Amino acid sequence: MWMKLIYPKWPKLPEQTEFHLPPHGPINFAANVPNDVHLTFHDENREELDLEDKPDVVALSVMLTCATPRAKEIAMAYRARGIPVIAGGIAVAIHKEEMAAACDSVFLGEVEGHFGEMLADLRKKTLKKVYDRMAQLPPIESVRPARRDILDYANYTYRGVRMADLVHASRGCRFNCPPCSVAYLGGRCFRPRPIETVVEEVKGIDNGRLFFVDNSLAQDKAWELELFKALKPLKRKWIAHPIEADDEVLQAAYEAGAWYVYQAVTDVNDQIRRRIQMYKDHGIGVEGTIILGTDDQTKDDVLRLIDFCLEMDLDMAEFTVMTPFLHTPYRTQVEAEGRVLHDNWIDYTTGKVVFQPKHMTPTELQDLYYMAWDRFYGTDGRQTKMARLFRKVVQRERAEGTTTMPDGTVRGWVKP
Ligand code: SF4
User: Fold this and answer.
1) Average pLDDT over all residues of the chain
2) 18, exposed or middle or buried, with CB in 10 Å at 0-12, 13-18, 19+?
3) Domains of the chain by range and CATH?
């Protein structure tokens, strides 16, 4: 059986730095596809898609809301020629009814231990419309190393240099922030993978630079310390979402190879100021993630927030506008208040205003969004700031006697 795994394209934020990371969802799914299935992977963000071929089945891996319109187009094109289409991924779980209507079958939830039933039905031509396993989270121990062998790494370079490989050490999150659907997808629980399996997976990745795509590592101090201790001998450099703002944890993170973290900058206050300063004091870079247009922000608040990012001298900043994604606490609220402007999912990129902000007009918020990018990056430009972050990691690698080559391989790493 030939299964054509497709990652449909989505509109990129033109303001963001242009570099391409390999995806994580499809390679995680692929680890659950048995070897007797001939699996090919096609990332439409990086390559032209051939919609005229004849695989036995098309599997769509859909991560973002703004990728669902294209996913539905692809499904229609194949189904019109009698080729079955199945779909899974975060955005499929979030848009289950419309994705189920567009495809032969959808899988909802985490795939480990559950895909066998769908595949057996596919072989027997008795596919059900929906395989809903959202309430049956698989044991975290069953997560296998992702299948990176299906990736064409030539697609994932920045100026000829291979970018970071994505990996995860945990799933879930114990928080429930207003703009986030993680609680809907996995319940409010943090599920760390056994550290030895994370270490095994990292050892198998032929790249000196990684990105831990966990929602947030700042969930359990003891676990963080244990994880960082285990990662340290592997001499990789890595990016992550937030880490506990604690001197002991940050020191351990730095020694384990923390390169830079994404840190939400929600407000101008001493707590965030202290947190950013702590990262810097420990030699860890910071890319701020800043949501503009939250209900507590006036225009002046947004301007102060932009100034604050400059004042804190963040290494990078990513500005987005508040977006009422389905199955988030914020969506429930703005829907009840009649403030959703439209549900054209292609515009749910976080770069376009799709709701009525509380303290300004949609146009004013849109203008502030453009101004934030322009003011923060100014004449320096995004490429220059990115180059500075790269210089930091290269200097550290040299000091530690390792070098990440342009093809990603690590020189000087001696297996402990
Ligand atoms: S935004 Fe981050 S910390 Fe908040 S609920 Fe979502 S994943 Fe958890």
Assistant:
1) 94
2) exposed
3) 2-136 (3.40.50), 164-399 (3.30.750.200)
